[in-house]
Hints:
With 246 residues, the chain is of the alpha+beta class.
Amino acid sequence: MTETPDDDLKPSFRSDVSVELVKHAASDTDVLWAARVSTAGEQSLDELKKDPERSKGLINYLMRDRHGSPFEHNSMTFFISAPIFVFREFMRHRVGWSYNEESGRYRRLQPVFYVPGEDRRLVQEGRPGKYVFVPGTQEQHDLTARVMEESYRQAYASYQEMLAAGVAREVARSVLPVGLFSSMYATCNARSLMHFLGLRTQHEEAKVPSFPQREIEMVGERMEEQWARLMPLTHAAFNANGRVAP
Ligand SMILES: Cc1cc2nc3c(=O)[nH]c(=O)nc-3n(C[C@H](O)[C@H](O)[C@H](O)COP(=O)(O)OP(=O)(O)OC[C@H]3O[C@@H](n4cnc5c(N)ncnc54)[C@H](O)[C@@H]3O)c2cc1C
């Protein structure tokens, strides 16, 4: 099958990521409900909401003593658009996550590419395991944007040329770089999300610091904002206990 080149498919460039909470069944009450079966047997959700101070105390105790399973009885599905290099890191998180990503075999990939924004620290100083990122100069930013855009345009033109000549999408996509945007649904629970956030965000309250790549951290921050609204007591207990997943 040959594909006609589509002149509307002009490369576009983004410096941000999108994270949308598309489906959820997640609340602090789910944690209490699961935990209290240990001592009280089955309880109604209304019963669980009666004593907010006790609820807060129980969630904090579970987090502190790493009783993790009560944090699994909930579900959040995010629709995420981010560069392929972010997804490559993201999908290393195997436990408590489900993924479905757009296909480069079944559809023509759209020419949306990542270019770091002006606020992205561009320069790494120090050695692996002990380094910091510092802001780049204006020249470094201009060079990065120009070189990336040129390279993306050339790669996408080659992709389209092969499609127009009848080469299969699954073969032609080989020329596309990891800065290409992809999209996926990612479903998790609060426990697996906390494990992800502990590793993929930097935070002043973290007991065990991590040094994630900024772009996956941007995704993590957006997921965390939305999760914190659904489960404020669990989120507060996560921070209060050093952002270590129970
Ligand atoms: C800053 C940073 C730098 C990184 N650099 C690299 C790198 O250079 N190269 C690279 O390959 N990866 C790298 N990674 C990925 C990292 O090694 C992990 O694969 C990723 O963070 C997922 O963590 P996880 O395995 O704990 O998560 P999950 O896969 O979600 O697992 C959750 C937990 O389940 C348990 N578990 C899961 N699978 C097993 C198993 N097979 N056996 C025993 N216990 C298991 C562990 O307790 C684990 O912590 C990096 C990650 C970070 C955060």
